[in-house]
């Protein structure tokens, strides 16, 4: 007992939070992987995974075990360091944003006063992982994927920032907790519908999801940046992608959909997490549906769309917001 | 550094295929690229060459029948049709009217199945995963109908010299009518999901424009040629079987881009359904197979027969020498000519556009290599 | 400028319509069959590999081992051997082999048979680990069906 009391309570809190978050991360990837396959199946009028467990519910766990059990293949002539580092680099930065996200009024690892900026910064690191992985693989297809990822993220980070800024202007803070608290009466999606739409579209591109999944466009680049990866390296990319989706959806929830707010529940300061997750997974469901519906856009069309539609619209939106807030 | 040297350094070769998701089989395309721009795509064939023509020259003409279905397995019945009609023309065999009608019905059903598969595969190339499974759903109904009478699902060997292998029954007619009804209802799904989709239109419109002149120079046929605005269809221009008796149109495109080729195929599905409907209405009674000698003698001299397969004009050329084994058999397949314009078409375009063009050509590689 | 907005509107509308189609499909019943658990009835006209017809009256085959099927087979995958047993008028079969790895299911052998002694089997669950497993002994298959 004495050793524990020596440690500062804040540190204990952080360690517990990180452990919970990392285990949640794997759980989220498993759930999302299963949901994706099941929804894809039913969209295509087939049942999806059915064999392992009732309605294939254990399928992702079995797949995970298979991936972990695989040999770590390092192809000939790759940059060994970069090739090994890339999956870790894709996996690590996605843990950190979850620390500042307020799952509920009292369920937040740490309320940074620059929380939003912290999330956006960490989001950009993920692109570096794709670049490192694509470059290190010494494969032309991977290289294409990596280059596309970089250009795409540069183009789409701007509308994301601009649309988030509109919300920040309205409540005058970067702290996510305070942003949610400011939505006590009305969610910002009703005040900022354009910003919300722009954020969701740009968020799809930011997470490399269809119709913006150019870095891994399989009909063009076989598998894009992770062509050469297998086993655990691949699954880290996979978990990174799903966590990224979760982060994008939870930021949208926090900024636009009122975070933990919802009909009253007992122990609301903790159980608000139910509403939070409900909103996040609804958004994720929409993202999955989009993936199984649309074809992929071409690369220049993707950039055109960002510069011609998203950036002007978000700028105009920001301007109008600024003027209205000042009035 | 000189400008040309700089350019040399930035160019590289990319092997697309033979195991690439969007070459639909074992086609290798060697791309000379600069960044994402394709400078010179060169198709390399021969990975699945099986010497079908030589096989046709080394055994009695009946023995080649199963091979015809193996060349283009997606749309096998027109290949059957071409070969039996060739031998019938050469040996002067009469075919009962009912058999001809059945041949037309089954061929057109197979064409619809082929176009449905192509539609899904093309969308798969463009990155949409779902349409192919809707296409398969519809195609499965056709395969079930054809399986009931032909006995097989993919590589049919249904036609025989002087008729067809088995007569159709009322259940077949019923099922076909039901399918036509169902298919017409399904158009709206494809229209909403694909044809009107802005992302699809942007990926197909003004991409890979084949001018009428270019299409003729390379000997393109089928929907690819009609997409360029030339209304050439063997069924109309050089009618065979009982096609002249039916009322149908040849859909043509305007400028020959990928979207036009897409639209032509989609409209062809409707035209095929029209032909099937008319044929079912007028299906005559009678035998489905005439008496043919077991040992067909191919008279000296040459003979040619062309049919419209799902991918274009398929023509068989045969030289006989008095025995039952052909002296020479040449198959002119549409995909080979359709592909050959790729080096000219693919100069200076983006890699995703190349994938879109390849998909819109509806290539079947085993047909090209034979 | 007008085109800019109209494109945005029609494009957005088409995307929402597309999503409507998949959303509707999500709640429609599935159309596939869970194969090893459920099976679709196979059509009686299915053309599997060949089998000898069992004449229930005589409880034997109709084959006269004339070898027409062997000769007509384009892929040379049938082997027939008949032998004249003592005290019998007809030749009786001693060997009827089918090399299914080569067979292309064209059905020439069935049609050419003067006694109509061949039929198509209904078997389609054909998978094995060795090539030899596809060398079917048709005569043995008939013996097994014999009462």
Structural descriptors:
heterotrimer, A: 327 residues, mainly alpha, 14 helices, 70% helix, globular, C: 147 residues, alpha+beta, Alpha-Beta Plaits, 2 domains, three-stranded antiparallel beta sheet, two-stranded antiparallel sheet, 4 helices, 20% strand, elongated
How would you characterize this protein structure?
- The complex is a heterotrimer of chains A (about 325), B (about 375) and C (about 150).
- With about 325 residues, chain A is mainly alpha-helical.
- Chain A has helices spanning about 1-5, 10-45, 60-70, 80-90, 95-100, 115-135, 140-170, 175-180, 190, 195-205, 220, 230-255, 270-290, 300-325.
- The model of chain A has no long low-confidence stretch (mean pLDDT about 85).
- In chain B, about 50% of the residues lie in helices and about 15% in strands.
- Chain C has helices spanning about 1-25, 70, 110, 140-145, and strands spanning about 50, 55, 60, 80-85, 90-100, 120, 135.
- With about 150 residues, chain C is α+β, with helices and mostly antiparallel strands.
- Chain C is elongated and about 100 Å long.
- Chain C has 4 helices and 7 strands, in the order αβββαββαββα.
- Classes of the chains: A mainly alpha (about 325), B alpha+beta (about 375), C alpha+beta (about 150).
- Chains in contact: A-B, A-C, B-C.
- The interface of B and C includes residues 70, 137, 155, 193 and 197 of B.
List the helices and strands and how they pair.
The complex is a heterotrimer of chains A (327), B (370) and C (147).
Chain A: H1 2-6, H2 9-43, H3 59-69, H4 80-91, H5 95-100, H6 115-136, H7 140-171, H8 176-181, H9 188-191, H10 193-206, H11 218-221, H12 231-255, H13 268-291, H14 299-326
Helix pairs in contact in A: 2-3, 2-12, 3-12, 4-6, 4-12, 6-7, 7-10, 7-14, 10-12, 10-14, 12-13
Chain B: H1 3-10, E1 11-16, E2 28-34, E3 37-44, H2 52-57, H3 65-71, H4 76-91, H5 97-125, H6 130-150, E4 159-160, E5 163-164, H7 170-195, H8 198-204, H9 212-217, H10 223-227, H11 234-237, H12 258-281, E6 301-309, E7 312-320, E8 328-332, H13 334-339, H14 342-345, E9 349-350, H15 351-360, H16 365-369
Antiparallel strand pairs in B: 1-2, 2-3, 3-9, 4-5, 6-7, 7-8
Chain C: H1 2-26, E1 50-52, E2 54-55, E3 60-61, H2 68-72, E4 78-84, E5 91-99, H3 108-112, E6 118-120, E7 135-137, H4 138-145
Antiparallel strand pairs in C: 1-6, 2-3, 4-5, 5-7
């Amino acid at each position: 007992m004495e050793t524990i009391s020596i440690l500062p309570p804040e540190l204990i809190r952080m360690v517990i939070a990180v452990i919970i978050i990392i285990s949640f991360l794997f759980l989220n990837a498993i759930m999302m992987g299963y949901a994706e396959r099941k929804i894809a199946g039913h969209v295509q009028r087939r049942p999806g995974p059915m064999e392992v467990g009732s309605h294939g519910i254990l399928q992702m766990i079995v797949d995970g075990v298979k991936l972990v059990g695989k040999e770590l293949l390092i192809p000939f002539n790759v940059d060994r360091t970069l090739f090994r580092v890339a999956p870790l680099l894709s996996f690590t930065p996605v843990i950190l944003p979850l620390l500042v996200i307020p799952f509920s009024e009292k369920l937040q690892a740490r309320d940074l006063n620059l929380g939003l900026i912290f999330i956006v910064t960490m989001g950009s690191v993920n692109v570096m992982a794709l670049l490192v992985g694509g470059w290190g693989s010494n494969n032309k297809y991977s290289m294409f994927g990596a280059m596309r990822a970089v250009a795409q993220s540069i183009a789409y980070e701007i509308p994301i920032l601009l649309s988030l800024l509109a919300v920040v202007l309205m409540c005058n803070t970067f702290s996510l907790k305070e942003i949610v608290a400011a939505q006590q009466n009305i969610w910002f999606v009703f005040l900022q519908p354009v910003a919300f739409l722009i954020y969701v579209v740009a968020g799809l591109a930011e997470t490399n999801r269809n119709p913006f999944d150019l870095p891994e466009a399989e009909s063009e680049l076989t598998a894009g940046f992770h062509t050469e990866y297998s086993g655990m390296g691949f699954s880290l990319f996979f978990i990174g992608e799903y966590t990224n989706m979760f982060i994008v959806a939870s930021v949208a929830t926090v900024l636009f959909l009122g975070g933990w707010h919802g009909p009253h529940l007992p122990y609301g300061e903790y159980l608000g997490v139910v509403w939070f997750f409900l909103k996040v997974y609804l958004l994720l469901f929409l993202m999955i549906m989009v993936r199984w519906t649309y074809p992929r856009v071409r690369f220049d069309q993707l950039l055109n769309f960002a510069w011609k539609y998203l950036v002007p619209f978000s700028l105009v939106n920001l301007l109008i917001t600024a003027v209205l807030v000042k009035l | 550094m000189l400008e040309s040297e700089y350019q040399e350094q930035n160019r590289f070769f990319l092997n697309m295929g033979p195991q690439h998701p969007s070459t639909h089989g074992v086609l290798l395309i060697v791309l000379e690229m600069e960044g994402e721009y394709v400078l010179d795509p060169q198709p390399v064939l021969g990975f699945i060459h099986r010497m079908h023509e030589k096989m046709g020259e080394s055994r009695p003409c009946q023995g080649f029948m199963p091979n015809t279905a193996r060349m283009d397995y997606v749309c096998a019945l027109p290949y059957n049709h071409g070969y039996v009609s060739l031998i019938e023309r050469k040996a002067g065999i009469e075919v009962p009217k009912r058999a001809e009608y059945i041949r037309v019905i089954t061929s057109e059903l197979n064409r619809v199945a082929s176009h449905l598969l192509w539609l899904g595969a093309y969308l798969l190339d463009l990155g949409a995963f779902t349409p192919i499974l809707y296409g398969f759903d519809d195609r499965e109904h056709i395969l079930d109908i054809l399986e009931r009478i032909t006995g097989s699902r993919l590589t049919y060997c249904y036609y025989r010299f002087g008729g067809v292998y088995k007569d159709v029954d009322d259940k077949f007619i019923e099922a076909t009518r039901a399918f036509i009804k169902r298919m017409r209802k399904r158009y709206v799904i494809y229209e909403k999901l694909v044809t009107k989709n802005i992302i699809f239109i942007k990926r197909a419109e003004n991409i890979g424009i084949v001018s009428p002149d270019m299409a003729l120079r390379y000997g393109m046929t089928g929907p690819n040629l009609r997409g360029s605005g030339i209304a050439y269809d063997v069924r109309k221009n050089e009618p065979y079987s009982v096609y002249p008796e039916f009322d149908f149109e040849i859909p043509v495109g305007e400028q020959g881009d990928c979207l036009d080729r897409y639209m032509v195929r989609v409209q062809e599905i409707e035209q095929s359904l029209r032909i099937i409907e008319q044929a079912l209405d007028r299906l005559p009674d009678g035998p489905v197979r005439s008496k043919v000698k077991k040992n067909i003698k191919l008279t000296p001299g040459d003979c040619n027969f062309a049919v419209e397969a799902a991918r274009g004009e398929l023509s068989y050329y045969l030289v006989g020498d008095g025995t039952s084994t052909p002296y020479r058999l040449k198959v002119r397949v549409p995909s080979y000519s359709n592909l050959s314009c790729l080096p000219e078409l693919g100069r200076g375009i983006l890699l995703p556009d190349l994938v879109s063009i390849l998909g819109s050509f509806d290539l079947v590689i085993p047909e090209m290599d034979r | 400028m007008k085109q800019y907005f109209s494109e945005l509107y029609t494009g957005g509308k088409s995307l929402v319509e597309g999503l409507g189609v998949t959303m509707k499909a999500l709640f429609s019943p599935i159309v596939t069959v869970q194969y090893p658990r459920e099976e679709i009835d196979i059509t009686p006209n299915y053309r599997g590999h060949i089998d000898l017809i069992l004449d229930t009256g005589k409880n034997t085959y109709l084959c006269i081992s004339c070898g027409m099927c062997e000769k007509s087979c384009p892929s040379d995958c049938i082997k027939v051997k008949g032998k004249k047993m003592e005290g019998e008028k007809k030749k009786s079969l001693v060997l009827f082999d089918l090399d299914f790895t080569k067979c292309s299911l064209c059905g020439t052998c069935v049609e050419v048979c003067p006694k109509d002694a061949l039929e198509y089997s209904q078997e389609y669950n054909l998978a094995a680990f060795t090539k030899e497993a596809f060398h079917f002994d048709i005569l043995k298959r008939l013996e097994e069906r014999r009462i």
